[in-house]
């Protein structure tokens, strides 16, 4: 897509006026050209020059014309390119250098060379400048442009350019000029490529440092290019296959210290990342690309991230690690403010969000960072970064988890919730990573770390449910177990990952939540677990069916799972709340019941309390559909909906006062109310709960997968009112 000029005054119109005026001697012009030059420089400073306008400006500057020296210099100083600097522009400027009456003046040539140094990172093809090395080198005898020329040569010099005759030329010029610092600096660059060459004591003299010629100009260039990027970021002009050259300006804190991608010591057969602006060129030259000088730029540069992903290198990892650990060392020694590390973590967070991976190098840095972290500053960013920890053996991760918990937990529910959110994100990321892998690679993965993590997090969830028994806390806990459900609902993952259940006490705490959403989500999670258990323990029906044998630890959990599953069904559906398995009858329908693990002596006390309140209340049924605090409203709404339909038909004499019981439905029918059996009522409430208006399908899902007669009702084989419980064998 071509670049378009910003709204407002058009630069091309001003260039038309300048080109016309440049052909007319100053004395013959009817109007002064100075206002046009001022408008042009102002527009260039504000908006920069598009590629086509840049070519016209360079032609104006390099070709002999009648514009005065001050005007040409002003335009050159404000020559801010908006995009890449084309080969055409580069060659025209190089061609304008040197001696000759048609050449620009030497002060203007020095500005050209200075400009080339400042836009070197924007050259569309830096190798073109390398190909003109001989032309540029032969201009070193021009004292007026030597400082800028030496700087440019130092920037583009590669091993192939260092030749004995060039060394001799520099030595001779240095003797003639009395040790010119610029020549000495260039000679040092030569010696860096060939340390063995003997040049005497010249390199020991004062040498130019070749610093950036104009830092303020570079900052303004970055601002203009970023403004242009912001205007065009949605038009597809950036494809992610070009290095970013404005990191230092756009980023704050530690980000400002992340260097740009720059390759200083490429050799003749290599290419650099800075040369690419398309995916095709990048892929075709992948094996020839030279490693950049500052690899830590990978934390902020997308193209370098792609490069190291496709061409991983142990040396590169070590160099990045050394840089990061040096940052930690600076903070530890007091040379750098501790907030610097927090800024670095934010940079790393952006990096791992892009790559979806936390490398061992970054893990090492984060572990060192946690030693100095106070557990509060930028907590969300730190935890989000750590949530991309790789799936390793749990013994390797356990020390880091212990360190994190020691820093994060401060005896408040808020810190516990933050830790739980981290574990939920971590588990989701692990699951996504496993699901994206080929099934054949799963046996080689340390998948046993997942049940180990669940066992590790279970006490945290139980503590939270007791210390902060709010609906929001319960939902956060259920988020974690929903993440486990993603694993156990995948047949491929279930073949390799052992099942670990939540603590029974936690299940009971959530089952008695005052929120219908909490109860519904809990039932959905238990349904996933039940289906997973059935998949694991059911015998194969064909030789081709893949199945694993449950571990001994899994078998020990089945009775526990059956216990709280039956207790929930007893409370919500079967009218046997807090029933206990009879010790004398192992074949009893309540064989797995645990009475929600409340003391047996407490059951008659609770029942007596309820009967004192109302003779119709019974402990066995008070948590069913009609009386349960979170279900009673939806249950009576279902009945009201049926009554509204009957009223429209004109056949309803009396409405149900509620709550609904078997006896009340019989009496209601005899008095002219809605005709509804107990079985139809309960099945109807389940349908109402999973309908669009309520959207709480967890309880119906659990009942249809647990109660045998309801399973038949859904398949249309028998009536839906029984209470036979389907436990795990």
Automatic annotation (TrEMBL):
Its main location: nucleus. It comes from the Eukaryota. Belongs to the CENP-I/CTF3 family. It is found in: Chromosome, Centromere; Nucleus. The lineage of its organism: Eukaryota, Fungi, Dikarya, Ascomycota, Pezizomycotina. InterPro entries: CENP-I (IPR012485). Keywords: Centromere, Chromosome, Nucleus. This is Centromere protein I. It comes from Podospora pseudoanserina.
């Amino acid at each position: 897509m071509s670049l378009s000029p910003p709204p407002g005054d058009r630069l091309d119109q001003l260039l038309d006026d300048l080109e016309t005026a440049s052909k007319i001697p100053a004395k013959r012009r009817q109007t002064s050209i100075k206002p046009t030059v001022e408008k042009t420089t102002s527009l260039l400073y504000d908006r920069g020059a598009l590629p086509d306008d840049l070519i016209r400006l360079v032609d104006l500057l390099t070709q002999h014309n009648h514009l005065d020296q001050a005007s040409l210099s002003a335009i050159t100083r404000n020559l801010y390119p908006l995009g890449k600097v084309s080969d055409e522009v580069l060659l025209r400027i190089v061609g304008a250098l040197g001696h000759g009456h048609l050449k620009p003046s030497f002060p203007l040539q020095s500005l050209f060379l200075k400009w080339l140094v400042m836009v070197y990172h924007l050259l569309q093809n830096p190798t073109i400048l390398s190909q003109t090395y001989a032309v540029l080198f032969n201009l070193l005898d021009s004292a007026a442009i030597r400082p800028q020329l030496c700087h440019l040569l130092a920037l583009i010099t590669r091993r192939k350019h260092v030749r004995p005759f060039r060394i001799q030329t520099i030595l001779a010029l240095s003797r003639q000029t009395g040790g010119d610092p610029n020549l000495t600096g260039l000679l040092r660059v030569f010696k860096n490529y060939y340390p063995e060459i003997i040049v005497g004591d010249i390199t020991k003299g004062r040498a130019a440092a070749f610093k950036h010629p104009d830092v303020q100009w570079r900052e303004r260039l970055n601002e203009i290019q970023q403004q242009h990027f912001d205007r065009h970021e949605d038009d597809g002009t950036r494809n992610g296959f070009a290095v970013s050259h404005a990191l230092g300006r756009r980023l704050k804190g530690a980000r400002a210290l992340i260097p740009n991608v720059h390759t200083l010591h490429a050799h003749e057969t290599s290419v650099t990342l800075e040369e690419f602006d398309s995916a095709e060129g990048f892929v075709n030259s992948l094996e020839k690309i030279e490693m950049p000088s500052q690899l830590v730029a990978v934390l902020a540069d997308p193209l370098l991230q792609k490069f190291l992903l496709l061409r991983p290198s142990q040396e590169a990892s070590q160099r990045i690690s050394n840089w990061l650990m040096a940052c930690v060392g600076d903070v530890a020694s007091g040379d750098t403010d501790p907030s610097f590390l927090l800024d670095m973590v934010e940079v790393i967070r952006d990096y791992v969000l892009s790559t979806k991976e936390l490398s061992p190098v970054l893990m090492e840095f984060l572990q060192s960072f946690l030693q100095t972290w106070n557990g509060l500053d930028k907590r969300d960013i730190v935890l989000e970064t750590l949530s991309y920890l790789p799936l390793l053996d749990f013994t390797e991760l356990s020390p880091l988890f212990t360190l994190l918990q020691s820093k994060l937990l401060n005896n408040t529910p808020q810190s516990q919730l933050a830790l739980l959110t981290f574990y939920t994100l971590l588990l989701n990321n692990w699951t996504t990573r496993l699901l994206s892998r080929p099934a054949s690679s799963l046996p080689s993965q340390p998948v046993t770390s997942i049940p180990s993590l669940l066992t590790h997090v279970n006490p945290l969830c139980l503590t939270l449910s007791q210390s902060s028994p709010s609906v929001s806390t319960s939902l956060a806990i259920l988020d974690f177990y929903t993440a486990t459900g993603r694993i156990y609902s995948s047949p491929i993952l279930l073949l390799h990952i052992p099942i670990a259940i939540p603590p029974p006490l936690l299940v009971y705490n959530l089952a008695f939540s005052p929120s219908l959403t909490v109860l519904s989500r809990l039932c959905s999670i238990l349904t996933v677990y039940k289906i997973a258990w059935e998949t694991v323990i059911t015998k194969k029906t064909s030789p081709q069916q893949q199945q694993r044998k449950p571990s001994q630890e899994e078998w020990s959990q089945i009775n526990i799972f059956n216990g709280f599953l039956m207790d929930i069904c007893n409370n919500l559906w079967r009218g046997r709340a807090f029933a206990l398995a009879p010790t004398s009858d192992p074949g009893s329908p309540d064989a797995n019941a645990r009475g929600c693990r409340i003391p047996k002596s407490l059951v008659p006390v609770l029942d007596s309390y309820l009967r004192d309140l109302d003779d119709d209340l019974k402990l066995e049924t008070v948590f069913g559909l009609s009386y349960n605090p979170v279900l009673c409203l939806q249950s009576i709404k279902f009945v009201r909906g049926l009554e509204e339909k009957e009223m429209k038909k004109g056949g309803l004499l009396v409405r149900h006062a509620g709550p609904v019981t078997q006896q009340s439905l019989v009496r209601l029918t005899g008095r002219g109310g809605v005709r509804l059996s107990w079985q139809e009522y309960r099945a109807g409430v389940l349908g109402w709960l999973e309908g669009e208006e309520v959207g709480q399908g967890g309880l119906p899902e659990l009942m249809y997968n647990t109660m045998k007669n309801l399973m038949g009702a859904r398949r249309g084989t028998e009536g839906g009112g029984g209470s036979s419980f389907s436990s795990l064998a």
